[in-house]
Design a protein that fits this description.
Helix content: 40-55%
CATH superfamily: Metal-dependent hydrolases
Strand content: 5-15%
Protein name: Amidohydrolase-related domain-containing protein
Number of helices: 12
Radius of gyration: 17 Å
Distance between the termini: 44 Å
CATH architecture: Alpha-Beta Barrel
Number of strands: 8
Strand order of the largest sheet: 1-2-3-4-5-6-7-8
Order of helices and strands: HEHEHHEHEHHEHEHEHEHH
GO molecular function, one term: carboxy-lyase activity
CATH topology: TIM Barrel
Keywords: Lyase
Number of domains: 1
């Protein structure tokens, strides 16, 4: 049985979390074409963050990752401007939709603190040359790159990101969903052990507290990044997998925000 601590007691008392600076490194905003989201607005996201005790979320718009990167990045920027102290953005780059132009358009916008790639939706392999602007921009600015991953994918299997990490050792790469499938969790742990610029981001429908415990035990909490994928996945469920993991309080606090905060360039 877990010893009560400030994180678990906040849940039991039905109050927002206290004692941890929670940063959600993987969120989305806006309507999605593949399923219905009752209220995908930035205002709704911040209301839920308030209820849960999440200080900040880093998001990309659903429009950006799927249908229209230029309009979607503008939607991301608008969401961040509406709540600048609570939300930050990923600049989504799609290899089929002028990634160089998007970098030029948004490079100086402080609301974008990282890059988002979704090779599975882009239907383009992540080591391909058309993603070059993403790696160049990240190397020049120190901003992390969050890429969707899926074990066995022809576009973003974690081993493909490891090949990119080897080519670009100066770029911080977050493996979104940590490979997504339990069958790949041992592999992503080993890849992150070999490549110090790879970090495991843990949102996903198949993820459990036990998987988190293995990752932290093998790599250390500073290599594991909390993300929820909300509103695709319930923020409360995603938090619970970390809050009630059988890990020391300090490790859970690091996963919930400390590890990601250490990767971010200073805010202007």
């Amino acid at each position: 049985m877990l010893t009560p601590d400030p994180l678990t007691e906040a849940v039991r008392n039905r109050v927002p979390l206290a004692g941890a600076d929670v940063i959600d490194a993987h969120a989305h905003v806006g309507p999605y074409s593949r399923f219905f989201i009752p209220d995908p607005s930035a205002d709704a996201m911040v209301r839920l963050m308030d209820r849960c005790g999440v200080r900040r979320a880093v998001l990309s718009s659903c429009l950006a990752i799927e249908l229209d990167t230029a309009a979607g990045n503008a939607a991301t920027a608008a969401a961040v401007r509406s709540h600048p102290d609570r939300l930050a953005g990923y600049l989504t780059l799609n290899p089929h939709q002028s990634p160089e132009a998007e970098v030029a358009r948004w490079a100086d916008d402080p609301g974008f603190i990282g890059i988002k790639l979704h090779p599975s939706l882009h239907e383009y392999p992540v080591p391909g040359p058309a993603y070059g602007p993403a790696w160049e921009f990240a190397a020049a600015t120190g901003r992390p790159v969050l890429s969707h991953t899926w074990t066995g994918s022809a576009y973003d299997d974690p081993a493909m990101l490891a090949a990119v990490a080897e080519r670009h050792p100066d770029v911080t790469i977050l493996l979104g969903h940590a490979g997504a499938l339990p069958a790949g969790f041992d592999t992503v742990i080993e890849l992150a052990r070999r490549h110090q610029n790879l970090y495991l981001e843990i949102c996903g429908s198949y993820f459990t507290s036990r998987a988190l415990e293995r990752m932290v035990g093998e790599l250390g909490a500073h290599r594991v990044i909390y993300g929820s994928d909300f509103p695709f996945i319930d923020l409360r469920y995603s938090l619970g997998r970390v809050l009630f993991a059988d890990l020391p309080l300090a490790d859970r606090i690091t996963v919930l925000g400390g590890a990601f905060a250490a990767l971010l360039p200073p805010r202007p």
